[in-house]
Known about the structure:
Blueprint: H1 2-32, H2 38-49, H3 51-71, H4 74-79, H5 81-105, H6 114-135, H7 143-148, H8 162-173, H9 175-200, H10 208-211, H11 214-225, H12 230-239, H13 245-315, H14 321-331, H15 347-399
Helix pairs in contact: 2-5, 3-5, 5-6, 8-13, 9-11, 9-13, 13-14
Amino acid sequence: MSQHFYHQDHARILSNSLFENASQIFYEKLWKFQRKDTQFQAFVKKVIMSRLFKIIMISTVSMNAFFMVLWTDYKTRYSLFRLFEVSELIFVSIYSSEFCMKLYVDPINYWKDGYNLLDVVIIIIIFIPYSLRKIKGKHYPYLNIADGVQSLRILKLITYSRGIRTLITAMGQTAYTVASVLILFFVLMYIFAILGFCLFGLPEGGDMNNWGNLALAFFTLFSLATVDGWTDLQEQLDARNLILSRSFTIIFILLASFVFLSMFVGVMIIHTEDSIKKFERELMLERHMNLMEEKQVILKRQQEEVGKLLQTQKDLDHKSFTELVEKFKKTLRHTDPMVLDDFGTSLPFIDIYLSTLDNQDATIYKLQELYYEIVHVLSLMLEDLPQKKQSQSSEKVDEK
């Protein structure tokens, strides 16, 4: 018996080790796999990340939403039937092309992004009505539900709007806190629902329409929490002369509406402000990275130009380095900032830099001498002030 279990355990361990080795080999090969169409992949990625592509997609989603609004009017639907069919084909083709392009650029990491998964869900929703019409026919009773779900297409705007994504991130961060507030709110409603059923839901003289059972009591409390028609509910209780009805209503509205709902809104505002600040920091960092990339491009171009100058100086001995620098200045555009990083590797630049420092030292020395002269003159003027004051006072005494 023990040998049988030993053989089973040994076989299980062996199979697990083989599976782990096979999966490890597969992932290593997949990691080492290099695509041969890297240039075309980079081109498609550049197209997807371009501003023009985003504008086209936002315009497409907006136009699709506008056409769906027109589609809800039966007269417009029948008069523009062909236009709706052609536009639907165009919209579906654009959405499918976008999906294929993004999947082509990064087929593995594409599925790790939640917004890409949202696009996949929308693509599936788009093809549901076509599938139902092919399989079940045009008179399928639930086909109108599939057509109504097409309104979710407008959610594709989330992918191209960083502001909306920031708000969604804030809502996701508040999920735990909001869940705690909602649970506490449910506990409050449960307590008041039981209490209201016992006070106002009695068969004799009670309000059976609003407090007759626990479900009706919960619905009535929800109306009180939203302060929607609470005066009509209170009038029905006052008409039956129920004791403590006004105290019950006032206490519940104060707790539910002014405490819990305000707490819910406050939590959302706090997390939204944090997300907006984080979004602004990310935007500043992105701008800084773009500036650094532009700086590196300019630096690389200027280094190439300086290298060409040095090579030209070697080839043409009759030209001086100063003339070549003047020629190099003419190649610069007026919008290019001058980047001087890593230019200290050339001896001519070091010579020019040291001579510039010598001139700066001489200028600073002359300025110091001028400052000393100014200080000396000011000190002499301060020494003469007391003597002038004494002479003026003595003159006034003689006059008296």
